[in-house]
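Query form — protein Protein kinase domain-containing protein

QUESTION: What is the three-dimensional structure of this chain?
INPUT:
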Amino acid sequence: MDCLMNKSDKKKKKNSEANQRLRSFQENGKILLQDLIQLCNGKSNPIRTFSANEIIQATNNFSENNHMIRFEFIYRGTLENRPVLIKRATWNLYTSDTLAKICRDITVSSMVSGHNNFLKLLGCCLEFEYPVLVCEYAERLPYSNTPNLGMLIKMAREIAVAVSYLHTAFPRTMVHMDIQPSNIFLDSNGTAKLSGFCLSVLIPEGETFVKVDAERVEGVLDYLEYKYVTSGVVTEKTDVFSFGVLLQNLLIGKHRVVDRCEGDESLFEYEHGVLNLRVSDRVCKFVEEGRVSEILDPQVFESMGGGDERRVEAVLMLSLRCTGHRGDVPKMIEAGPALSHA
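ANSWER: The structure tokens for Protein kinase domain-containing protein are given below.
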């Protein structure tokens, strides 16, 4: 009798799980389809779907051994005998618009996957509470083993090409909104891949900006353009600013600039009683004072050869143009060629 009860309970549990997966597939699929229609102008943009069982098997049920990055839901996996990245979510705390953000990540990823400088989307799974992305395998941009100066400039140039593509390849300008190291990956050939489109927004056709709710400004503070933070206005320059800070952090690492500015109150600002630390302001000060060598990443500094000082200066000057500290702010399509000459 107990054996029969156990079988009955297992069957009910299995049926309940199957029903829940079906509901998730339908609900998630509805939101994803709406986003695809909105961003792709109704054009067909097929995305392969994987089952929950395939994802669970690929990651060994999201085993800690396959968990790539602490505090983030990114896992190594194997699907159809090929290594893949499984992106389960990008937030530790779910919010009311989490589903919409994940669907936006899937939608934009599907639109740019044919480009070599974006992390390729292989498909998604809609059967979990929140959709899961399946992407080509690549490694997160390294910090512990910093590449040499030439490699850093190459990576930056490739990311500039990717962002330029977002800004120019579609009828409506796509603004990434979250350009920062955690959204950059490197494949086995050292090619930089941009990812993480959860916050991406479209500028209406024929317009140069779009306004979002200033109360819901999101992203990593140091990478956020001042105008966006204060007014919620999004333009191409929102990405250009973030890219400028990325250039700075590739060469110096935030911690080095912070360590060397602790006693300089002129570089610390308070907004609404909260200390606001701006890396780009500090980098500008060091460049102006000719103290660049003090803030360079040691591994970058040690790898430098003849003429590299001028290359570093050229990259930093471009970064300060991007953040509005020097001269006119360039467009992203100008930043890539500028790096080619660095």
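ADDITIONAL NOTE: The chain has two domains: 17-136, 139-340.
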